[in-house]
């Protein structure tokens, strides 16, 4: 008696209805929320993102246009929500056209232009992003470290070191000091380009710049050190330096350390890290278990460990296998000759409408052919023919 749904519950239901493409029912709930005074900025953001996700661009803009009739003020913050929604769905040109109409009666701010810089970079149109910075200056806004870091990351995604450092030099010359995100981006670029010494030299730049490393920086550093054979240094970062500097581990930290230890075939140490993870506030996910499973399948006499991990994944953690996990398991089972389990998992994948990779189909086809399982050969052949 007297119970009323909370603001959080209303927002969650709007999000779920939008996610399920139940747009009409979502609208009904939004109207009810508006009448009862539950419509907030968070609700508006969820409605816009779900409409954009359903590719109903005109509805997104129409919803924004009607906000005043719903008692909401159309200000810079709400305009930025609209532009950010369109840009994240890679409709940057639509966002740009909308902005040109709105800017005459809603003043933009620096964040407005950062939205466009990020949007243009996300569709690989960095020249437009650089032009946006000039437009930003023309209206009296100074580019921030975030603005420049977005451009640097875009060039890093193209593995364009020269351009990335050109932007870095420009921002430093303008008195815009790089932050830890900028340095992490550059370190990862060097690692991707297999310039590992240069990647590790970024650590010295971070120290000389007085930047405080964060979790993402340390995660990248642990991975680079581990992949370059400097396992003891990676362990020192994980066990000592992060704690010493007050930087918390996250799920990715544990996953990275487990992956590195598996890479060096130190499965017992990897299991120890897994136990540490379980005792922390970070819950293992599928990415946690995949390198362990891959390693255990490659080693002999580790069947007990494989069964223990699978029990952990399915029974204790209630995790559903994804494409990568199915692939790891089926390939591993084929290597150890357990074709019965491999075909069961293959069937499960198909039932769940998860498309197996071509390599998985070919490997399983070869194994069942060798065992004269002709009915299953035909099944795989029919599946690949129609997929």
From TrEMBL:
Record Pfam families: PPR, PPR_1, PPR_2
Repeat in keyword set: yes
Highest taxon of the lineage: Eukaryota
Record's keyword annotation contains Transit peptide: no
Gene3D superfamilies, sorted: Tetratricopeptide repeat domain (1.25.40.10)
Organism annotation: Canna indica (Indian-shot)
Similarity section: Belongs to the PPR family. P subfamily.
InterPro entries, per database record: PPR_rpt, TPR-like_helical_dom_sf
Start-end of each PPR repeat: 109-143, 144-178, 179-213, 214-249, 250-284, 322-356
Keywords from the UniProt entry: Repeat
Name this polypeptide is given: Pentatricopeptide repeat-containing protein
